[in-house]
Amino acid sequence: MAFIFQSDDGFPYRWPTNDLVGPKSIISAPPREHASHYHRPPLLGCREDVTALDEVRQFSWFKRQTFDVVRMMDVQCRKKLVENFRAKLERRKRKQHKWCDLMDELMQIEDENGNKLSDDEVVDNIVSLIIGGFESISTACTWAFSYLALHSDVLRKLREERRALSKSKIGELITSEDVTKMKYMSKVVEETLRLANVSAFVFRSGDQDVEYQGWKVIAWLRYGSTDSRNFEDPLCFNLDRWNKPAKPGSFQDFGGGSRICAANMLARMQIALFLHHLCVGTENPDVKTTYLPNPKPADGLKIVLSRM
Ligand code: HEM
């Protein structure tokens, strides 16, 4: 896997379609454009008001939450999204004002020759981030809840860490620095991502491969993180395995090389934030799993949230 990710020439990046994200998005960018255009602007999403005293279907509920986080209106409405963002972009171009948000950052980015992104690139990248951040985070958070409900010892320790932090933060919002200090939380996030296989595979093209010339190559990410040569008893949710770093190249759920997930730190941060606010009150679910395209709880995962 690591070999494929490091071989941009041998296994060029090529997904079957870019209809949804748009031809001018970072995801569709050919290698040279990708390298020169995209510095990675820092992104951080945080919601404080995610407490409810209600029974919910976790997966669909999280989808709504992640919609909000990335300001999604409807995934079917790419055209409408593009129109809206384009109109906003035009309005902004007429005004000399700094908004300090993603659109602003994308409008300012320059390569070493001072070239900026085109309007299409700005808009397609905003739409891509919305699409990229939608299902992935919803699925990861859903599985995190499920694992915590099944491992009450882990949930208990997570609550202890959370309580200790909350004591020092009365009335204040949690910051990204606080999240990095939550060592136990970080293990929960890594183990969830490893076991949940949110992004099961990526596409590469074997153009220069002698044996498989012209074939599309699916690099099956799930394989690395569930291989017993990389992780002992790999299907077991075990936080202790994160007491030391994973073997290089064994855990590549965010991809690797030049096309590594642009939001891999944001994703970790978002999961940690959701768990920080919601690691209370989950009930033991009887989880049945469906596997295509990604593993998901068949019933959407029924949970009850309660205020601590
Ligand atoms: C658990 C969460 C996530 C997982 C497991 C994940 C996984 C991945 C993987 C495997 C790739 C590489 C695709 C390839 O090499 O062909 C990727 C790329 C990407 N992801 Fe994520 N992702 C997650 C969350 C997000 C979020 C929240 C966003 C946006 C807000 C996002 C935006 C992107 C973008 C823009 C790319 C393309 C990067 C490039 O081509 O340079 N992802 N992601």
UniProtKB/TrEMBL annotation:
Positions annotated to bind heme: 261
Cell compartments where the protein resides: Membrane
Pfam families recorded: p450
One Gene Ontology term of the molecular function aspect: oxidoreductase activity, acting on paired donors, with incorporation or reduction of molecular oxygen
Membrane topology: Single-pass membrane protein
InterPro entries the UniProt entry points to: Cyt_P450, Cyt_P450_CS, Cyt_P450_E_grp-I, Cyt_P450_sf
One Gene Ontology CC term in the entry: membrane
Cofactor: heme
Domain of life: Eukaryota
Record keywords: Heme, Iron, Membrane, Metal-binding, Monooxygenase, Oxidoreductase, Transmembrane, Transmembrane helix
GO biological process: one example: brassinosteroid biosynthetic process
Family under the similarity heading: Belongs to the cytochrome P450 family.
Name this polypeptide is given: Cytochrome P450
